[in-house]
């Protein structure tokens, strides 16, 4: 009796994983060494290796030197092909997309980004991303025959398997353009294009994952991550898990109410942290005092010039963020608190008052208080996190939803 297709696929993928993991751990191996390392039958291994070679995940390496050790030819060895992309990460931001790829050795093969206007429709954003992938793969000689999956970060609430619960339920107030249709469009287009599963999640949560694995949270137990840019988002990694929450909202620190009588927020509430401390909110507040101010660059210039009122606005924004992070931290008790995003361009002008407010309000029960620190990663953190989600191997992803959607047949 034959096994159901899904089981066969899973078993095959597990075997492939064992072969790739052995080559990652040991470097190039002969077929007999590999057979010993993975404990698979010769026939099965022959089949798996043949397929991986055909798809470009593996390559053959001639033995070092002539190496004639007595009789016979020395065995050709198998190795991971460094140019074979095994995971693709795509991070769609408000005004730019970043794409990154990792090979079977889990090395980052490339990372690139390109800007688009914030009003760009989602179909066009996907085209721009695919175009960037095409150009970069051509330039770097990367191949995708062995692609295992595509991870995608999107702004706003995304819950795996339950597309885009959150803002879009409050009709007329959504700024995340397209609601559930957005996730479906991105997921289907990329799945059709690459023929692999596509995993979609909130891009800030993806960045939090990257920060926990490779950045400031590496080797620490628990991370609270906040990104203060166009909006304010966050992510929580606790007790070895990246949390999504029951409706995809875990870690959304930007929508904690700070001023009940404040401005209406895009989420439908009033006075959220985002309405007071996001980059547009800070620009708006400074422009109210200094009409020549149009952008955050102008704000940073005024800070550099020591403009007292601008310093006060930025300091107040930092204080609001610090208070909300202290509340979140008192609830969740992470070891590390990381602040990322465009706001960090204001440097100590924002980080110092933020840390002060945090220290004043966090429950101080131990000497290892997690002082907020700036991110250790660059602007490709979201794309790197999307790659980590595809590999799905990190212990941080225990219990994390498996690759959703995509083509599985
Ligand atoms: Zn809000």
UniProtKB/TrEMBL annotation:
SUPFAM superfamilies the record matches: Actin-like ATPase domain, Winged helix' DNA-binding domain
InterPro entries: ATPase_NBD (IPR043129), ROK (IPR000600), ROK_cs (IPR049874), WH-like_DNA-bd_sf (IPR036388), WH_DNA-bd_sf (IPR036390)
Pfam families: HTH_24 (PF13412), ROK (PF00480)
First and last residue of the signal peptide: none
Domain of life (superkingdom): Bacteria
Family: Belongs to the ROK (NagC/XylR) family.
Protein name as annotated: ROK family transcriptional regulator
Source organism (scientific name): Cellulosimicrobium composti
């Amino acid at each position: 009796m034959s096994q159901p297709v899904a089981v066969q696929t899973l078993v095959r993928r597990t075997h492939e994983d064992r072969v790739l993991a052995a080559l990652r751990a040991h470097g190039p191996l002969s077929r007999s060494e590999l057979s010993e390392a993975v404990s698979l039958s010769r026939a099965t291994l022959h089949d798996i290796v043949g397929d991986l070679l055909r798809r470009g995940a593996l390559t053959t390496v001639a033995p070092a030197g002539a190496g004639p050790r007595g009789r016979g030819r020395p065995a050709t060895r198998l190795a991971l092909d460094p140019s074979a992309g095994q995971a693709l990460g795509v991070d769609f931001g408000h005004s730019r997309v970043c794409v990154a790829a990792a090979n079977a050795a889990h090395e980052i093969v490339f990372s690139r980004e390109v800007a688009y206007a914030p009003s760009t429709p989602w179909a066009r954003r996907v085209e721009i991303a695919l175009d960037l992938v095409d150009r970069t793969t051509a330039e770097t000689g990367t191949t995708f025959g062995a692609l295992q999956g595509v991870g995608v970060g999107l702004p706003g609430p995304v819950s795996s398997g339950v597309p885009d619960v959150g803002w879009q339920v409050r009709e007329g107030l959504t700024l995340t353009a397209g609601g559930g249709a957005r996730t479906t469009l991105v997921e289907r287009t990329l799945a059709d294009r690459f023929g692999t599963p596509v995993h979609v999640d909130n891009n800030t949560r993806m960045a939090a994952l990257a920060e926990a694995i490779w950045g400031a949270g590496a080797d620490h137990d628990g991370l609270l991550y906040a990104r203060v840019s166009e909006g304010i988002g966050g992510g929580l990694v606790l007790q070895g898990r990246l949390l999504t929450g029951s409706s995809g909202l875990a870690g959304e620190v930007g929508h904690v109410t700070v001023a009940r009588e404040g401005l209406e927020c895009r989420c439908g509430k009033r006075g959220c942290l985002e309405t007071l401390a996001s980059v547009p909110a800070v620009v708006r507040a400074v422009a109210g005092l200094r009409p020549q101010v149009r952008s955050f660059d102008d704000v940073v210039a005024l800070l550099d010039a020591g403009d007292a009122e601008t310093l006060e606005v930025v300091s107040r924004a930092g204080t609001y963020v610090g208070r909300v992070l202290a509340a979140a931290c008192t609830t969740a008790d992470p070891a590390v608190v990381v602040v990322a995003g465009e706001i960090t361009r204001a440097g100590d002008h924002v980080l110092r008052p933020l840390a002060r407010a945090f220290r004043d309000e966090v429950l101080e029960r131990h000497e290892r208080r997690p002082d907020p620190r700036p991110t250790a990663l660059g602007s490709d953190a979201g794309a790197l996190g999307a790659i980590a989600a595809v590999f799905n191997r990190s212990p941080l992803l225990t219990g994390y939803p498996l690759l959703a959607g995509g083509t599985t047949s």
